Structures are given as C-alpha cells and as structure tokens.
Task: inverse folding
C-alpha cells in the first residue's frame, strides 16, 4: 500500500509540473488538454497494478485471507480465496490502462479527422470572413513621394535595435531586444520591441527592477531609440516563473485558448502585451480570433476585450501568419476538399517566398508586408494560382490588423519573390539582398519598392521594380532618388544635359510651359501640360 501511495504522490507531482511547464488550457476543445488527459489517465490506471495493495478478499469472487508479497508477480497466501492474487490484479489493471490509452488516442484521432477539411471544407473556407472586392486605385492611392514609406523589414529593425542596446553601458550584456511589432504611433509607422532578459542568470540579477523599457525603431529613417519606463517592465517572454508573460496569463485565464502575444505601446507610450483569444470553429480544429487580452507589461494587470471593443491604438489583433493561413484555406477549399487535392479548379494561395536553411536546402513560406493609414496597420500579400509555377500574382490581399477587414483586388503581375530577385540581380556585384517589398501606386500603375541591405542588415540602397514588367528595375541611394529614376523609366521620359542646355522628350503629351527650379531634393524642370496638370522632373548631377 505504501508503494502505491508513493506512486500516487509522484503522479500528482508530475501532473502539476507538466501543467506548470506546458501551460495546457483546461478546455475541452484543446487538443493538448486531451493529450495530457490520456497520458496521465493511463499512468493513474497503472498505479493499482503496483504490488502491495488489497488482499484476495478484495478481488471480486474472492474471500478474505492474508498475503505476503515476496516479489513482483509472486505471492505467499494463507486462508481461503479465489485462487487469484497479485498477478491477476496487475495484469487486469495494466490491460485496462493500455485499452484506455490506446482507445483514447484512437478516439482523439477520429475526432481530429472528423474536424478536418476532408469533412468540413466549407467551414475552413469561410473562416476568413467577408471579402470586400476593390480596385487597386481605391486600395492604394497614387503617391507623389516615397520619403514617408516604411521600408525597413523586421530583421533589419532587429539589427538596428540590437546595435542601440549594445551602445548603452548599463544595458549591454544584461538585456536583449525582443520580437518587433509594426504599429502606428502618433500617426507614424514604427517598429517596437520590449527589452528582455538575456537568460536565467540575467533575470535573477534584475528581476526586482525589471527591464529598463522598450525600443522604438523608425523604419523610414533607420534609427532606434530606447525608451526608459519610470518602472521597469517586469512581465516578458524572457522572464521566468510567475513573471513569464505566458505563465502569468495562464494563471489569470486557465480555460481560455490563446493565440500569439505581441508587444505594443499606446498613444501615451505605455507598454502592453496584446494576446489573441481564440475559439475552435470545429470542436478541436480551425481556430479563429474572437478578441484580445491587454496586459500592462509593468503591473501585469489584464483586461479582456471582444473584437468590437478593442481600443483603436491596438494594431495586432490579426497577424500576417493568421491572415495567410485563413486565405489559403479560403482559396484552396472554396471548391471542396477533393478539388483542392486533384482538379484544383479556381484554387488560389498567398504568394510564397523561397529561403535556404543552414544546409543549403530551399523551403518556401508565406510572406507578407505592411502598409499603414492614419491609425491602422494593414497586412498585405500577393495572391497566386495554386496550379501555377510562373511566380506571378493574380491579385492582392489586404487585411486590417485590428478589425480583420479583408479587401481583395485583382492585380496581375510579378510576385514579390520575383521582384526581390530582380532587385538582387541589379546589384549582384555587391551581394546586397532585397527586403520584402511594399507595393505603391505610381501614376496609376503598381510598383514594388524595397530596401537593399548587406550581410550585416545595414541599408545600402533602394530599389523599385515594375510589377507588370519586372525587367524594369532601378536603384538609388535614397528613396526619393529611386522614385525619380523609376518615374522617368516607366513614363518614357528622359533627361539629358549638354553645355547647360536641357532637352525634354515627353510621350503623347503637349507641354504648355516649362520652368526650371530647385528644392531640397535637387534641381528640377517643372512642366505644365495642356490639360492643366503639371509634373516635376528631377535632374541627376
């Protein structure tokens, strides 16, 4: 009996440790919950099989007697009984535990199968919600300048932030920058990340005061700033024990299904963690976001919000991976599951970018970019045919990161990976690599614009590629320079100088007047056409 009591205590200790480490939600729609239930249920049923428990008289059909355990599977018994002792009981409980574990896993597997797209393709296809059809001109208004477009990607922003931390004596070697989130802050696009602990020992040394604050990276200027909070940030992903943000949230909300957690700041500069709340549309599968939990990164106080109630400053209720997954389900499964496997009629997916791992093997993943209006971040990605391998887009998808509003526009041209490859080839002698591009409207036509970085993620150049003809590529040292070059390239306009004289050739437009001038961007020729419109053409030095 003592051995079984010890085993039961050990079982309970393992259960509590597993729950503490794995943070499994106490929710019947959670697959990890059922997996943990089956594992620990099987172990619990095996405890009675340990020798040293009830006598033969406790066995159905037996009579009271005495027994002495000599070894596992061997007994010495006195008095009358059923003739069945410990070996019988052990085998019975082991068999019961085995049937419970195996049977439970089979039932769980069947439940997952019945919740899969094989039987519920329509449910998966509709998870993205209503899709609003729009035009490129409505979704992306024409731009006359690119100096305020955020082009620096997350990987480059992380390098900029890391270099900023490394320049501060009281921070370096103690803290690191966390994951970056793209936000709108005071009407401008920023990337922000919490300063986090650099390992267990650094946490133990600083847990009383927390981390010094958070980083803000300007993805336009390429600069970083460390904002020190009055009280340190105590709840982070890199903290341990009760200050680990995931463990802190699970303790507050033991039954909720969580999605991803992102760091943001509100309009007053206060740091927050934004955690997605999810539910499954099909018992165990097909999760959808239904709200968020806002957690004060300093105090740990949390507040739950449904989707319509989310504050306007929050930007990451829906993230890019979620958007691409839901659209891929919509594009592939709208015609049914078997059509997505065999015929693939009308199937569409978000565009994929190819990368190489450390072993040189290539793999492809969904990639996406961000565009911003005055108060919201929009996630965008190209859309391509699932049956095509020509690296071309047939449309563009834009999703509001706060409200989940989905906009789709038909737009044919090269996909993002082709544009990046074209830009790489333009500067291949330097080994620069293009970031994921932003799409802009230049004189009514779509164009990609991106930064070019070296191996150290330092911005070296800018590039623009014509989406509908990606052989048209230009590069420049600044955003304004590459924009001017691109407009001259695609409009059929050329500038040339000889002995101070300027010759202007304009295709299909009659010029009413021409004026030379200069501004901070350089010298220009401003032409006014017969239709009343005017345009500046900058001249290279």
Result:
């Amino acid at each position: 009996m003592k051995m079984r009591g010890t085993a039961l205590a050990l079982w309970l200790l393992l259960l509590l440790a597993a729950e503490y480490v794995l943070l499994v939600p106490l929710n019947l729609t959670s697959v990890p919950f059922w997996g943990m239930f089956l594992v620990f249920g099987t172990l619990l049923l095996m405890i009675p099989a340990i020798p040293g428990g009830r006598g033969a008289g406790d066995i159905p059909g037996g009579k009271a007697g005495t027994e002495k355990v000599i070894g596992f599977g061997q007994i010495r018994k006195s008095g009358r009984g059923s003739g069945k002792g410990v070996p019988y009981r052990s085998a019975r409980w082991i068999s019961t535990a085995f049937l419970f574990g195996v049977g439970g896993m089979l039932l769980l597997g069947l439940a997952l199968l019945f919740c899969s797209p094989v039987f519920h393709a329509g449910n998966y296809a509709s998870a993205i919600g209503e899709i609003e059809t729009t035009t490129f001109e409505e979704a992306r208004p024409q731009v006359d300048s690119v100096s305020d477009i955020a082009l620096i990607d997350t990987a480059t922003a992380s390098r900029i932030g890391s270099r900023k931390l490394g320049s501060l004596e009281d921070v370096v070697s103690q803290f690191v920058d966390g994951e970056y989130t793209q936000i709108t802050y005071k009407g401008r696009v920023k990337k922000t990340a919490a300063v986090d602990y650099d390992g267990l020992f650094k946490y133990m040394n600083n847990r009383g005061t927390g981390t010094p604050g958070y980083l803000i990276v300007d993805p336009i200027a390429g600069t970083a700033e460390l904002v020190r909070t009055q009280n340190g940030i105590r709840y982070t992903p890199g903290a341990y024990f009760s200050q680990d943000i995931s463990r802190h949230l699970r303790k507050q909300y033991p039954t909720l299904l969580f999605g991803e957690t992102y760091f943001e700041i509100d309009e007053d500069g206060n740091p927050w963690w934004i955690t997605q709340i999810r539910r499954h549309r099909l018992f165990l599968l097909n999760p959808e976001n239904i709200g968020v939990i806002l957690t004060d990164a300093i105090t740990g106080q949390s507040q739950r919000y449904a989707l319509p109630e989310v504050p306007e400053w929050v930007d990451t209720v829906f993230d890019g991976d979620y958007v691409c997954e839901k659209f891929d389900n919509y594009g592939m499964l709208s015609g049914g599951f078997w059509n997505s496997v065999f015929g693939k009629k009308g199937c569409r997916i978000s565009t994929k970018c190819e990368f190489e791992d450390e072993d040189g093997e290539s793999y492809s993943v969904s990639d996406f970019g961000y565009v911003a209006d005055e108060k919201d971040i929009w996630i965008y990605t190209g859309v391509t045919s699932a049956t095509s391998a020509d690296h071309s887009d047939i449309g563009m998808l834009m999703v509001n990161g706060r409200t989940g509003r989905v906009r789709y526009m038909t737009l044919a041209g090269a996909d993002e990976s082709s544009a990046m490859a074209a830009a790489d080839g333009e500067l291949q002698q330097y080994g620069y690599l293009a970031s994921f591009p932003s799409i802009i409207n230049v004189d009514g036509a779509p164009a990609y614009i991106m930064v070019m970085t070296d191996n150290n993620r330092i911005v070296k150049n800018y590039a623009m590629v014509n989406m509908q003809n990606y052989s048209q590529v230009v590069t420049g040292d600044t955003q304004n320079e590459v924009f001017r070059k691109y407009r001259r390239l695609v409009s059929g306009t050329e500038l040339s100088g000889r002995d101070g004289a300027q010759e202007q050739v304009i295709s299909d437009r009659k010029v009413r007047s021409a004026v030379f001038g200069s501004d901070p961007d350089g010298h220009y020729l401003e032409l006014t056409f017969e239709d009343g419109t005017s345009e500046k053409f900058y001249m290279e030095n």
Observations:
- DSSP finds twelve helices and 29 strands in the chain.
- Residues 53-83, 493-505 have pLDDT under 50 and may be disordered.
- The first helix runs from residue 2 to 22.
